[in-house]
């Protein structure tokens, strides 16, 4: 008993327990400040150039700001009401929905097919690079090239004429029912290589035992793919879908380059509509409101796909 | 003792050979399909590549996929594209934005990741989320406030303004990657240095940073190409030739149909894309590694 107490007793001259706690707190505070000093540049840049604008954008969308005045006049939700009554906004929303719907399904599906096709084929690395190559070009460059691909005397029309299908030749970017699909085809041509590479990374990371076990049990290739590969690949597929939907949803450069001079601008998407209303027409508050709508949609897409991912992880 | 007997004639020895044949045919079919698809994929590039060798008249006449009659017109195309799109200054600007913005962003992200992983303090999650929240908003939400703020500060049409913004927008993603990477480095190294009396910055510079070159190089490539290929921020924050990026110049050139022919615009397109594409072809491994980072 006595000895145990001895062990707890502080040696003579040592600081008291309280002093030691205080010293540890001081050290913890010092560590916090050191860490903050390391993070300060990042926090500063992000706060000033990214977060502050987002809040200002939210505020501006509630004002009457247009041309050079009105930033101090509160408008409530009037800008959002104006969205609801603007046919241009409807057009843009409808086109954006098409973009989102297509990017939900096609890039991941085509990317997966390409991945299955390319995997193990002779010259796999070369083929991978070829399919990925369009990604290395900017959307601007791709838009310019495809603008001419779709032109009257472009390669698609002259190709159709060469094989005797001249009737199918069209002004691809200047028909309201064709322009959006045409731009989406270009977008997919550019993006699918990325999806393929991401899916190949996922495929190569899968464990091989379940597939071999199924093969021994006599499962066919399509059975193995449907019941083993696909479920295991689900997290990667969701990630790829998120990337592709957000890319399709906010794509600006491509639509701007390929579709900005469509009569009436009825084939533009929300992101281009936002640019037009604010930077061409000067309706700053209204443009801010469109940006907020875009932000809400983007965040709900990534949030719901993230939640789905989380549910799968838990299982 | 029983002897098992086989009826040799009933055994199908050819089955293995036939299966091998089948597998070979399957491989050939897969290869041909892939090759045909790859050729289709490359058609726009082929179109781009031959168009730069055609003169205005030649482009207007024959089939767009016909081979050019001579290589000579390319010189004239390049000079016209170069001067009309102001590609000299555009190229320098884009290079400046990409190099400075990318490098600064990754250095700042490495600093932040060091603070987030190598020092113990409370509220790490909060500070990380604060930095990472820079990736959750669509870029459209930044445009109007940035334009107005830059106008007020006189930063529109300035190279400094462009570099500052590109640095900021390229910070959050590398923080995510480098934080995961640094968390995996053993902490014994910096504890030892700390006992020897090294300052935190010294530990960062001499111990942690040298171990992070590989992911940092890959991240730099990703951010450099992003900045090089960006159009919208250059469109919003610059409208003068001396500060605008190469892609902006290309977009303006494409918009002025009246006096530029497709062959010239395509020449400009190829010239503007060459740096990032060459970078990809030379450093393919690093880019593919970068995609691995992205998919984690």
From TrEMBL, chain A:
Belongs to the binding-protein-dependent transport system permease family. It comes from Kaistia terrae. Keywords: Cell membrane, Membrane, Transmembrane, Transmembrane helix, Transport. Pfam families: BPD_transp_1. The keyword Cell membrane applies. The lineage of its organism: Bacteria, Pseudomonadati, Pseudomonadota, Alphaproteobacteria, Hyphomicrobiales. This is Carbohydrate ABC transporter permease. It is a multi-pass membrane protein. It is found in: Cell membrane. Residues 93-305 form the ABC transmembrane type-1 domain.
From TrEMBL, chain B:
Gene3D superfamilies: MetI-like. The chain crosses the membrane at residues 28-53, 95-114, 126-148, 160-182, 203-228, 264-283. Residues 91-283 form the ABC transmembrane type-1 domain. The keyword Nucleus does not apply. The lineage of its organism: Bacteria, Pseudomonadati, Pseudomonadota, Alphaproteobacteria, Hyphomicrobiales. This is Carbohydrate ABC transporter permease. It is a multi-pass membrane protein. Belongs to the binding-protein-dependent transport system permease family. Keywords: Cell membrane, Membrane, Transmembrane, Transmembrane helix, Transport. The keyword Transport applies. InterPro entries: MetI-like, MetI-like_sf. PROSITE patterns: ABC_TM1 (PS50928). It is found in: Cell membrane.
């Amino acid at each position: 008993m006595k000895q145990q107490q001895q062990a707890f007793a502080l040696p003579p001259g040592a600081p008291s327990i309280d002093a030691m706690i205080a010293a540890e707190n001081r050290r913890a505070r010092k560590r916090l400040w050191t860490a903050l000093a390391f993070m300060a540049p990042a926090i500063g840049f992000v706060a000033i150039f990214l977060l502050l604008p987002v809040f200002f954008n939210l505020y501006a969308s509630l004002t009457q700001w247009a041309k050079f005045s009105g930033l101090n006049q509160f408008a409530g939700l009037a800008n959002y009401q104006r969205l609801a009554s603007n046919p241009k906004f409807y057009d843009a929303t409808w086109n954006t929905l098409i973009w989102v719907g297509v990017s939900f399904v096609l890039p991941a599906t085509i990317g997966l097919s390409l991945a299955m096709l390319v995997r193990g084929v002779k010259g796999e690395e070369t083929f991978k690079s070829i399919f990925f190559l369009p990604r290395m070009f900017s959307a601007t460059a791709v838009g310019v090239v495809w603008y001419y691909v779709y032109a009257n005397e472009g390669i698609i029309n002259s190709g159709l004429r060469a094989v005797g299908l001249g009737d199918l030749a069209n002004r691809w970017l200047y028909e309201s029912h064709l322009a959006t699909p045409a731009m989406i085809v270009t977008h997919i041509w550019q993006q699918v290589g990325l999806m393929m590479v991401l899916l190949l990374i996922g495929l190569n990371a899968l464990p091989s035992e379940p597939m071999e076990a199924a093969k021994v049990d006599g499962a066919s290739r399509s059975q193995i793919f449907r019941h083993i590969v696909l479920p295991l690949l689900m997290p990667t597929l969701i990630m790829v879908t998120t990337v592709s939907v957000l890319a399709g949803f906010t794509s600006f450069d491509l639509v701007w380059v390929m579709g900005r001079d469509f009569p009436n601008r009825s084939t533009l998407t929300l992101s281009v509509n936002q640019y037009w209303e604010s930077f061409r027409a000067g309706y700053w508050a209204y443009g801010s409101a469109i940006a907020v709508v875009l932000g809400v949609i983007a965040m709900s897409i990534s949030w719901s796909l993230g939640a789905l991912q989380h549910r799968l992880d838990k299982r | 003792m029983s002897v098992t007997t086989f009826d040799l004639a009933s055994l199908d020895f050819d089955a293995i050979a036939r299966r091998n044949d089948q597998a070979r045919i399957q491989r050939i079919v897969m290869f041909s399909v892939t090759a045909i698809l790859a050729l289709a994929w490359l058609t726009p590039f082929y179109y781009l590549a031959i168009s730069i060798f055609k003169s205005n008249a030649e482009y207007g006449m024959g089939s767009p996929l016909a081979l050019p009659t001579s290589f000579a017109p390319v010189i004239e195309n390049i000079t016209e594209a170069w001067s009309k799109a102001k590609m000299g200054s555009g190229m320098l600007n884009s290079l400046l934005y990409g190099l400075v913005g990318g490098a600064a962003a990754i250095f700042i992200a490495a600093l932040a990741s060091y603070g987030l992983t190598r020092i113990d303090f409370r509220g790490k999650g909060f500070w990380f989320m604060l930095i990472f929240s820079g990736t959750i908003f669509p870029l459209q939400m930044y445009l109007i406030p940035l334009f107005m703020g830059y106008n007020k500060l006189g930063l529109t049409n300035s190279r400094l303004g462009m570099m500052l913004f590109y640095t900021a927008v390229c910070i959050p993603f590398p923080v995510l990657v480098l934080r995961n990477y640094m968390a995996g480095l053993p902490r014994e190294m910096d504890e030892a240095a700390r006992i020897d009396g090294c300052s935190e910055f010294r530990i960062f510079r001499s111990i942690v940073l040298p171990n992070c070159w590989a992911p940092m190089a890959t991240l730099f490539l990703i951010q450099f190409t992003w900045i090089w290929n960006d159009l919208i921020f250059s469109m919003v924050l610059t409208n003068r030739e001396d500060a605008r990026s190469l892609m902006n110049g290309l977009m303006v050139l494409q918009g002025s149909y009246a006096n530029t022919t497709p062959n010239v615009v395509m020449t400009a397109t190829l010239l503007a894309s060459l740096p990032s594409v060459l970078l990809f072809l030379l450093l393919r491994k690093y880019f593919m590694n970068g995609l691995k980072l992205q998919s984690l």
